[in-house]
């Protein structure tokens, strides 16, 4: 009987959701970037795991409230074409800029590797909306 070789992704960075005050990692939520996926895991006794394939990520942005800035935290909002999780909000993580840079770099690498191209969505009348004016 032949054993099937399971391909392992290399973990690039892992962050934990933190409590806003004092930036303590008291949460059981982790966000991990591998070469091909963004993994989201939450829970202690009962766990929930989900993933977004990096080539499906469309856009991301960083938000930092005053409290987050004081404690060195930030939030990344990831928009994707994933059916189960089109928007993932990565809340209160410490190295937010490093995490976003690694995510962005690996999204582009994965899209290039898969020769994936996306096009901009036009309004129903073929107009670029407010952007063309």
The share of residues in extended strands comes to 25-35%
Please bin the fraction of helical residues. 10-25%
Report the count of strand segments.
7
Number of helices: 2
Query: What's the story with the biggest beta sheet?
Result: 4 strands, antiparallel
Order of helices and strands: EEEEEHEEH
Assembly state: single chain
Give me the secondary-structure category.
alpha+beta
- Please state how the strands of the largest beta sheet are arranged side by side: 1-2-3-4
What's the average pLDDT? 83
Global shape: globular
Using only C-alpha atoms, the radius of gyration works out to: 17 Å
pLDDT under 50 segments (min length 5)? 120-129
Quote the distance from N terminus to C terminus.
65 Å
What does this structure look like?
There is one protein chain. With 133 residues, this protein is of the alpha+beta class. 17% of the residues lie in helices and 34% in strands. It has helices at 66-70, 96-113; strands spanning 11-16, 29-34, 37-42, 48-53, 57-63, 74-80, 87-93. The strands form 2 sheets. A 4-stranded antiparallel beta sheet has the order 1-2-3-4, covered by helices on one side. The chain has a 3-stranded antiparallel beta sheet with strand order 5-6-7, covered by helices on one side. It is globular. The relative contact order is 0.17.
Feature tags:
133 residues, four-stranded antiparallel beta sheet, 2 helices, 7 strands, alpha+beta
Per-chain topology:
Elements: E1 11-16, E2 29-34, E3 37-42, E4 48-53, E5 57-63, H1 66-70, E6 74-80, E7 87-93, H2 96-113
Antiparallel strand pairs: 1-2, 2-3, 3-4, 5-6, 6-7
């Amino acid at each position: 009987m032949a054993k099937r070789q399971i391909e392992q992704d290399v973990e690039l960075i892992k962050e934990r959701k933190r409590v806003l005050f004092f930036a303590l990692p008291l949460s059981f939520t982790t966000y991990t970037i591998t070469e091909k996926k963004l993994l989201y895991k939450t829970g202690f006794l009962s766990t929930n795991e989900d993933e977004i394939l990096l080539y499906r990520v469309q856009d991301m942005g960083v938000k930092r409230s005053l409290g987050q800035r004081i404690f060195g935290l930030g939030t990344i909002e990831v928009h994707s074409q994933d059916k189960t999780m089109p928007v993932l909000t990565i809340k209160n993580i410490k190295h937010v800029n490093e995490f976003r840079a690694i995510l962005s770099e690996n999204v582009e690498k994965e899209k290039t590797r898969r020769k994936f191209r996306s096009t901009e969505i036009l309004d129903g009348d073929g107009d670029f909306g407010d952007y063309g004016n």
